[in-house]
Each structure stands twice: as structure tokens, then as C-alpha cells.
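Exercise 7 asks you to align residues with C-alpha cells for two separate proteins.
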Amino acid sequence: MPVLDPHPRFILVETSHPGNVGAVARAMKVMGFADLVLVRPRHADVLSQEETVAMASGAADVLTRARIVDRVEDALQGVQHLCATAMTPRDFGPPTVAPRAFFEALGRGAWPPPEAAGTGTGVGHGHADLRRDMGAPRLGFLLGSERYGLSNGDVYRAHVCLSIPTHPDYGSLNLAQAAQLLAYEYRQALGGFEVVGRTTPTQWADAAAVSAVLQHWQQVLWAVGFLDPQAPKKLMPRLQQLLNRTPLAQEEVHLLRGIARAIERAANGAGPHGVREPQAAPGAPEITARTTLD
């Protein structure tokens, strides 16, 4: 069964801005990729520049292992299937496909499609035979410079041109953004990563705890005069149905019972900490404000 290369290579051609190199390294690492090659970057020391390292934000190991070469040919050593990225339409060259559709087809062994075989695009029957005989080909993503993108000659080297679907009125993506989208789509094609929950599992209250909440609130509602014990009608059964429709966590049970205790204290004339409020002596002036200490 066809499989995908788990270690694709990201190749940046003539990158100008150090920050983009760092951001691409970060984009790669968060998706589990680490093979980065730079072709003739504007700054020879780009991998160690402060802005590069800052934008890598923890992906310094990707920068440490990255290589700088003088020619695209040198970056392609070991790459068996090259994917160019280009937004500008060309009248000649490899077929243009959206990344997701291409990765899915490649994983099924359905690339190249029959219509592409033998058309001079570099995706003929020989490549299909390679897929059957050797399994997943080594994949490379070729990304051009910020200002000019890829040259026609570099695009012609590729087996396919990947085009990220964007709004028809504005399709300009930052270099690192494009790399992140490619890395994400390819990771998803490989099976993706499991989403790990950040919160602890909820401890749900059982029926006994919910019944105790209702009994507590029944006492409180009697105390404040909201519930007439002589004519309770259907108040408590309705509250029971309300709680049945809304499963309660243990912490929520504690919260409701804490509110009930606070209401009881207020109804009994006690302060917020259970201390009964002093009663004014007959004829004493009314106290309109109380000072509290934090």
C-alpha cells in the first residue's frame, strides 16, 4: 500500500529576510519536520542571526541542522519528487494542484494521474513504476524568494506545482505562512497529531449529591419565604427537572450549596462570615454604612 515520506525537505531559494527563515523553521517543527535547506540566502550568516533565532521561537535545533548550498541542484540530492510552490500562472510546466488534493492522491498511489503520463511534465510512467517498486518517494518542497518567487527554470524542475487556494482577489501569502500551510496539510495527510485536552476530566455529581442540593435549597426557600411549605405546588419537582436537564459537576454542587449557605446566613441576620449583625438599640440613629476590612 502506498505511503508518504515522513521526512520531507523544505528548500528555500534566495530568501531575503532572516525572520522568514526562523518562522519557517518554527512552522516545520510544530508539524514534526526538520529537514531545511537554504539556497543562496541573502545573508550568509542567516541561520545564526538574532532575528532568525527569535522568530524560530524554540526551533533552534532545526536551524542548527539546516544547510546552505549554492545551487538548487545541491539541495535536491536524495529528493525523488519535487513540489514547487508558485502563484503566478505559467503557460508551460508541471500540473498545478491544491496541496490537500495532491497529498491525498500521492498517499493513495494515484499520482501521477493517467492524463499526466508521458506529457513531458516529468511525471510520466517511470515515476509511477518508482512508486510501485520503492514505495514513498523522498519529497521536497521548493519555495521561492519573498519578492520574486521561483524562476521558471526552478518550476520546470518540479514534478508538480502546489497552489494554496486563496481568495481570488488577493492570493499573496507570506513565505512562512505558505510553509506553515504546506506543513500542516502534509502532516494531516500523514495522519496528523492527536489533540490533547488541557483540562482535567470532569467529575460528575451523582444522583445522591443532586438530591442533597435540592433538599438544601428547599430549606433555604422556606427560610426566605419563597416556598410555602403548606402549599409547595410543583416548585421542587420543577427544580428537580431543571437539574436533570443540566448535569452537574462536583464543583458545581459545592457552588450551589455554598450559595444556599450564604442565603441562610443572610436570612438569619448573619454577616458574610457567619457573624450576626449587631442590632441597633431602640432610639439609636440608623446605621447607613458599614466599614469592612479586606
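Second protein for Exercise 7:
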Amino acid sequence: MASRKKMRKLSLILSVIILLIVALIIAFLFLIPRKNARDIKAVAELEANVSPSDRPGLYVDGLALKHHDGTEVVMHGINHAHCWYRDKDDVAFKAIAEAGADTVRIVLACGIQWDADTADSVREAIEKAHSLGMLVIVEVHDGTGSDDIDVLKEIASFWCGIADVLTGTEDYVIVNIANEWVGKMNSRLWRDGYTTVIPMLREAGIKNVLMVDAAGWGQFGRCIDRYGVDVFRSDPCANTMFSVHMYGISGGLKSEIRNNLTSATHHGLCVCVGEFGYTHSDGNVNEQYLMKYCNEHNIGFLAWSWKGNSGGVEYLDLSLTWDGSELSPEWGAPFVEELDKHKP
């Protein structure tokens, strides 16, 4: 009897060990991004075969973002909620630049959820920020969390309608097509949406670098690992980069931070962290490791956000005042200290 119990116990232990080994194999094969030499070569060939006239300003070169003169750009910036606080642009842009940001990501609206920006308001916001020496990322926020391709198409139509505003800005403006479009962790939907709209923007004459947020409210970098090269191939200018937003889901663990970013870099794709905080409703963020990893790998990052958060997430305000005279001690002050390290 004792012998049978011992055999059953050994059998149970062996079964558990086998299951753990199988789980580790699955994680290695399907969950942890691996370098893909074929994709890296394909991306490089696509970039090499594009006419310089199709990439007149900023451009992606493998993992790097570069100015037209070949100088590498690593962004260290801040998000600004322009579409909700248009009357604060002057003071906010000035304060953000003085805080040490070399890039500002400007939140726009196309009319689906919030009052639409006009061509003039977009032009004015870009000019104000650029006049202070910052690179500019413009993004449309209305599609946040949407799983509807028609919403993405409407956002694309907004960009096409203001294509003239973007002409001539290619060396200092990046078009972040839609903030966090696709709330689900649905890689195929994400791929199908962006491979549909990217050609629309190019046909309208937009030649700026395009930026594509990950699915899953920006936090599911795995979609880039699966279909990022397909999205890149859909761009006839071969000038698309990717962005992962890092809050509790994607930025809480060191392994998640690495995996989300290597989901792009292991395929030869340029990536940045377009938004992150130090904590959020979905958990704490290991922001110090995130910035350390990005610095070590020349990956840009932009904090969310200068001021104006509401609905219980006011803790994400970097500054307690629009002019930056009082930074939040938990988030703003430490991030500005980080920006100081990158000042020329």
C-alpha cells in the first residue's frame, strides 16, 4: 500500500514537471519575441528601395529614427492634451520645452468624440511647439479603445483632409495615426485596420513618418511581433514606426517591458514608448527600469502627461500648474530629473 502511494506521488510530481517544461517551451516559442533575421532583412530591403523623395525628412533606418541628414533621433518628451485645453497651448508648450523635453506629443480630435481640430488649429499647434525647438508628434485621440475599422478610416480621412498642413513639416513632425486604436488584444484586426489606412495617407501626399500604436489600448506589443512587418510593408514609403504605451499591464514587470519592445526590434522595426506613467488603475509601472532599458537601447519615450488629467487619474499630471512652476513630487519631478540627463 505504501509503495502504491509512493508511486502515485512520484507520478504526480513527474506530471507537474512535464507540464512546466511544456509551458516553458510554449512561452519560448509563442510568447517571448525572438529575433527574425528574415524580417530584419526584408525591412532593410524595403527601406533601401524607396526613393529619397518619398522620405524627405525624418525617416526610419532599421531600429533608428533619423533626421534627413542621417543624425539619429532618440525622443525624450511629454504628452500635451491640446484638444481639451487649446487655450493652454502657449503656456504648456513653453513649460514643456523649459522642462527639457525635446519632443511633444499633441493630442488632437477629429470630431468623433470631441470637437474637431481644424487645419488652422493643427498648423498653429505644430508651429508653436516647433518654434520652441521641439519635435512634434500629432495624434488623433477619438479612436481610443475602438475596435471599429470604420472609426480608423474616419480618422485617416481627417489626416487626408489636412495633408497640406503637413507638407513641409516632414523633418520635425511625426503622424501618430490613431491613439490606442483596438482595445482588444486582437492582432489581426489591428493589422487589417492599419494596412487599410496607411496607403490612404500616402495617396493623399502625406510623407511624414507614420507612427502606429499597439493594440490592447496601446499595451499589447505582441501584435507588432505577429504582424508589424505586414503593417510596415503596407507603407509604400517604408517610413512607419511603432509605439507601445506602458502602464500596469505592459510596464509593470521588467520582462513585460523587454518583451513589448523587442516585439518590434526583433523584427528590425523602429519603436518608442509613446505614453507611460509611474502608476495607473491597472497597476504600478516600473518606470525607472523602463527608462533605463530605453536609454540602453536608444529607444525614445514620452511621459503622459503635462496637466489636465481628470476622472480619477489626476495622479498622471506631471505638473500641478500649467506653467510648470510646481511639479508633482511623485511623477513630474522625477521625470524632469530624467530629462535633465538628456539635455545637449
